[in-house]
Amino acid sequence: MTLAHISDTHLGFRAYSRTSRGGFNQREVDVMRTFESALDAIAEREPDLVIHAGDLFHVVRPSNATIVQAYRLISRLQDRRGGKPLVVVGGNHDTPKVSDSGNILNLFGTIPGVHIASRDLETIELGEVEVTCVPSEALGSSSGDLYLPRTGLPNRVLALHGMARQVLPDHGEFGVEQTPASEWTYVALGDYHCFKPYGSNICYAGSTDFTSTNIWEEIGVPKGWVWFDTNSGMLEHMPVATRRVIDLRPIDATGLESDELEARIEAAAEWDASEQPIVRQRVFNVLPLTRQRLGMRLRRELGAKALVFQLVLSQSATDADSRRDGAERVLDLEEIWAQHIADATVASNVDRAEITAIGIQLLKEVAESEASSSQAR
Fold first, then answer.
1. Over the stretch 251-280, which tens digit does the pLDDT of each residue have?
2. CATH of the domain at 15
3. What SS3 state is found at 191?
4. What does the pLDDT read at residue 176?
5. Are residues 200 and 262 in the same domain?
6. Sign of the C-alpha dihedral, residues 169, 144, 225, 149?
7. pLDDT of residue 364
8. Is the pLDDT of residue 12 over 60?
9. Final residue before a domain boundary, out of 186, 208, 239
10. H-run or E-run covering 375
11. Count of domains observed in the chain
12. Domain identity same for 261 and 230
């Protein structure tokens, strides 16, 4: 048996304010494209079974456009595979909190060969294959269960969406510590966004794109899906191309005036503008007055070279280190304003970037005025 394991595609994910030519959030378009690339690659390998281990969608109620596109792509995959089995497990992002709410995943069960396990633990028999599905909701209510095969079929697959204490002791409260991998032909784990194998037949496939709350932790770990062949008994990670994410080397601003700091930031901004990457530049030991004097020109110019350019300023190296480690930080007023405009509903003829720039400039003028008043006193 051959198997393709994909997970955490998070279709409908949105971030930042940039839009595509069609008016859609650019990151939403990116995520759908990587999903399409992964499905095309899976179709070329012609697996006997495809497992999606949860979080097909990023939200419980994705947009109509996202649903239609996902349905089209999965239908195309199944047409190319001749309707061979594809099992989708419900994840925490695409499962409604209220049990009697409709689940959009069930719509995909109308596609030939697609089997949906949206909420309850269930075992699906597919010829000589048993697939035991543990959606996030079932894992949360039965964390102490012993997950063992229920049939004597030659191929036994466990598909589980959640964090496993056995394999990730520092992540999450649920686990599969009582699930001996030797009892299963393959264990497909979902929820953790980085590819992580724990032997020859158990792994997190990781996400297919950068859709977590802290993408900077994931740089260096390729996105993709997993191929497994029972004949070889080995799993193989199959990367997919994503928009480039760049975390520039942090800059120490100690002793630098605002113009000197701008020159350092500009000199570090070396990337191919045609790629329109997602870029972060962290600067620590920035004095409040230096922060206030940093001009908008640099932000605009570097922002034009990227899909998004995040300039993260902190007063100490300790702050910068904590942010690198994924600790939550308090947004400054400029970031709050930019985030508000990115998420707000605006008329189609309104330029979000222009409104964002105007608001940030006004905030800077107020900050400079207050600083001048303080110095005068």
1. 999 989 889 999 999 999 999 999 999 999
2. 3.60.21.10
3. coil
4. 47
5. no
6. positive
7. 67
8. yes
9. 239
10. helix 352-376
11. 2
12. no
Domain check: are 182 and 255 in the same one? Answer: no
Same domain, 73 and 188: yes
User: 172: closest CA among 188, 149, 189, 197?
Assistant: 189
- Give the end-to-end CA distance of the chain in Å, rounded to a whole number: 78
Nearest to 316 by CA among 350, 282, 292: 282
Taking a C-beta distance cutoff of 8 angstroms, is the pair 36, 73 a contact?
yes
- pLDDT number for residue 164: 59
- Rounded distance between C-alpha atoms, residue 261 and residue 290, angstroms: 9
Provide the token pair at 18: 């940039």
Length of the chain: 377
* Domain of 197, in residue numbers: 2-239
Residue 207, token pair as written in the block: 């996400």
Tokens encoding 176: 């599969």
Q: DSSP string covering 197-254, please?
A: E-SSSEEE---SS--SS-GGGGTTS--EEEEEETTTTEEEEEE-----EEEPPPEE-T
Q: Tens digit of pLDDT for each residue in 28-55?
A: 999 999 999 999 999 999 999 999 999 9
